[in-house]
Amino acid sequence: MTYQNYSLKQLQQIDAAHHLHPFTDHKELRAAGSRIITRAEGPYIYDSEGAEILDGMAGLWCVNVGYGRDELAEAAYKQMKELPYYNSFFKCSTPTPVLLAKRLAEIAPKTVNQVFFGSSGSEANDTALRLVRYYWMLEGKPEKNRIISRKNAYHGSTVAGTSLGGMDAMHKQLGGEVPNIVHVMMPYAYELARPGESDHDFGLRAAKAVEDAILEAGQDNVAAFIGEPIMGAGGVKIPPMSYWPEVQRICRKYDVLLMLDEVITGYGRTGEWFAAQSFGIEPDTITTAKALTSGYQPLSALLVGDRIAATLVEKGGEFAHGYTYAGHPVACAVALANLDIIERERLVERVKTDTGPYFAQALQERIAGHPLVGEVRSFGLMGAIEIVKDKATKERFAPAGSAAVVLRDHAIANGMMLRATGDTMILSPPLIWTRATIDMACERIAKALDLAAKDLHKA
User: Fold this and answer.
1) Residues contacting 147, CB < 8 A, separation 6+
2) Is the distance from CB of 407 to CB of 364 less than 8 angstroms?
3) pTM of the model
């Protein structure tokens, strides 16, 4: 029996009775009922009641080539018919992960040539943590195991991912993180820059927090620094251009590995295949997932730099780590077809030279001046809108995060899917957006801002 045999109310009742959602207040959801998304095409999603919604989040940062791509469905079907599954254990492999690993090495930064597959970004970050600590063990320095991360970072929701991340609420619920992980300030100038401090100087100060943490622990105890090139789930926090070169200099000075989390930024979102290339970073590991398949299949890829890979091969015995679905042949077949689409349609170049700059201009000209907006910022096709009560003082509405939810709900009701993170609205649209799509999005966001302003000032 298909879902068409059920009414919205019936689906909501079944959902409430049996389905636990991620990052959800289940009491609140069950009182309101979930929105049931039933189909999608191009840049739009449609719910069970027929409402068309422009997807400003590319699903969950992932549907870069948009919805309804027959080519990806056909790649999955063909692979399922030929070989639906086999594992990468027992000294075995299958053709699609082999070819995908080669493809990823070709588009990755030049010193990154090895790939370890999983099924999610969280798994990729778990693997990166394990691999980096194992690397230092093989190098005869097991005490070099501290990881430096950042406050409000997001690196997944497994135990290791939550520990690497810097979100206090997640740590509180975990009740005990993986040891030897510390968190330093984030490069978030809107709230953390000092009066009169330039972006350049703020970037250097934020980077110095990494150096201070290395010196405090002692460089012989620090394995790596991990960071998202642009902080995603924490609110699209874009560092000044001075930040990453200085962080890289510091890591090299103290022989600390540099781990990039590109689960969100990878595969074209910043106008390059990887944000490492946008910021000139030469990382030791890059975690990726999401847009690797445009969300059509679950797949992650940890890209491993030559330094780590050489030690792993030459000095290592068994790396006792892996997943049942690592290198799943169907997911890898879809990823190969997805990369073909991105390349053939020149989506990376389009973001860099056309839609990315137009997106930035449109946000500044049509959204930034609204009384509720403290700041807009973007990089490629990632954007953020800071919601404030007072533009001059940056005062927020109380309680924290409440105003963004009001705006989000008005946006969705008016056909625009946005995400609220704290007091920040974030955008991460499919890379197939055009200038016309961006115009439509700004029009709908502006309308939602006006409606939210009436509600918030009424309250």
Assistant:
1) 129, 132, 164, 180, 181, 182, 222, 223, 224, 225, 226, 259
2) no
3) 0.96
